[in-house]
Amino acid sequence: MSATGADGEAGARACAVPARGPWWWARRRSAVLDVVLALLSTLECVVEGAAFSGDVGLPEPVGIALGLVAGPVLLVRRRWPVVVVLVSIAVTPADMGVLLGVVGLYTLAASDTPRRTTALLAGMTVAGTLVSTFLNLRQEVAADPDYQPPLWFVPTMSVAMGLVVTAPPVLWGLYVGARRRLVESLRERADGLERELSLLADRAEERAEWARNEERTRIAREMHDVVAHRVSLMVVHAAALQAVALKDPEKASRNAGLVGDMGRQALTELREMLGVLRTGEASGGRPASGASGGPERLAAVAAQAVAHAGARASVPEPGAVAAEAVGGEAEGPSLAELAELVGQSRAAGMAVVLSVDGAEGAGVPGRYAAGVEQTVYRVVQEALTNVHKHAPGARARVRLAHRAAEVAVQVENGPSDGAAAPAGLPSGGNGLVGMRERVTALGGVFVAGPTDAGGFRVSAVVPAGGAGAASDAGAASASGGGVAAGG
Q1: What torsion, rounded to 10 degrees, do the Cα atoms 367, 371, 375, 377 define?
Q2: Are residues 401 and 473 in the same domain?
Q3: Tens digit of pLDDT for each residue in 90-131?
Q4: What parts of the sequence cross the membrane (predicted)?
């Protein structure tokens, strides 16, 4: 490889390698190269300086001293290329510094020096070389009377010499500088892409973690809604069964049948919910239908469903989780089952009244989006469960209103009957949180709080959208996050 080629390769990689050479050199190899070039330039200048001093009648040490001063300037070509070119122009009349000028022009063109400065110094070099060559040729022609070249010979050779000495190093330097800047820009772009990919990988990990947590939250909320209500009714019926087992065997038999029905319904709904999450057999090798078999088996199936959902939630795009959530809700309960839900609470001994406002034939849709109907159903279900837990013996009223662009529901209960024994049902304190999450995820409004009469009121207004609105609501739910409504 030539000296200029090696210099170009070293300069192209200088920005990527930390400075390990002395002074302004990025590498020791670059310093060695410049020292060798400086020695060659010094040797050339000394020889040409001695010859020049003899031609003009000066002492030879003067020419040698001039060569010793001009030649080593090449050492600073990377730091001050303009100085090197100016020195080469200055010593041109002495017929020395050819290597100094060639390497200096190359370095100047390859550096970040403004192009106007490069063009000006290159033009000065061409002019100096042209004049020096012209005078030398005229002197040689005049010294030999026998040789009479054509008139165009001296000017043409002078111009040719000026261009030959100047044009190749300048053009090569411009090429190497352009290539160096291209390599630097490509390297910067590659570094930027690498940083961007790193950031995207970090964001993908965060999304995956967020999606797993969001799916666990949804599963916990679904299990709470499915299991808590049914189990609460089962506990109430079991207490009634215990109270009348000896006094009224017929009523005890009916209560026992209701407890069995409640358990079967709870398991059916739980299987439906797990069926959305499972694509085959569970990780334990048993199908989802094996959820029966007691509380221990039920807890094991629930744990497997949570683990399976966490593995599926590794997809980095939140929209996939939202779509899965909406798809899972599509098979849930609907508003048509509210009467049955209220009837179950009546069978458990609660005095509850259901009233529905808004006729389906008066321009009000009779079928809402699946997510809307399930949300309203779950609000009523959780509110009635809370009445069983916290206000035993209280009267309750469920109001459902169909409107043009929304559906409203309100569950209000009076104060607890002091004569009624509490059912002793545990409470995790997250039921209201789960209801609020469901309603706000669909763009609705949820309000809950005590009444002046000493009871409690739960109200929710949900936009009555179609299937598209349900998908949008699922996306809103995926971006909302929240606390798991279990317990």
Answers
A1: 40
A2: yes
A3: 888 887 888 888 888 888 888 888 888 888 888 888 888 888
A4: 82-106, 118-137, 157-178
Of the chain, the end-to-end C-alpha distance in Å amounts to 77
State which residues form the domain around 107: 3-148
Hey, what are 32's tokens? 């060695």
| pLDDT at residue 54 in the model | 75
Domain count across the chain:
2
Determine the residue type at 123.
G
Strand partners, 351: 395
> Is residue 114 in some structural domain?
yes
How far is Cα 475 from Cα 109, in angstroms, rounded to an integer? 58
Instruction: Name the packing angle between helices 249-277 and 295-312 (round to 10°).
Output: 20
Helix, coil or strand: residue 448 = strand
**Rounded CA gap, 397 and 85, in Å?**
98
pTM: 0.45
Would you say residue 295 has pLDDT above 80? no
**Same domain, residue pair 277 and 425:** yes
DSSP summary character for residue 453: T
CA-based R_g, the chain, Å: 46
pLDDT at 184 > cutoff 80? yes
Mean pLDDT, the chain, integer:
74
Tokens standing for residue 450: 């005590």
**Tokens 């790193």, residue?**
198
- Assess whether 137 and 204 both reside in one domain: no
Is there a domain that residue 154 lies in? Answer: no
Residues 141 and 238 in one domain: no
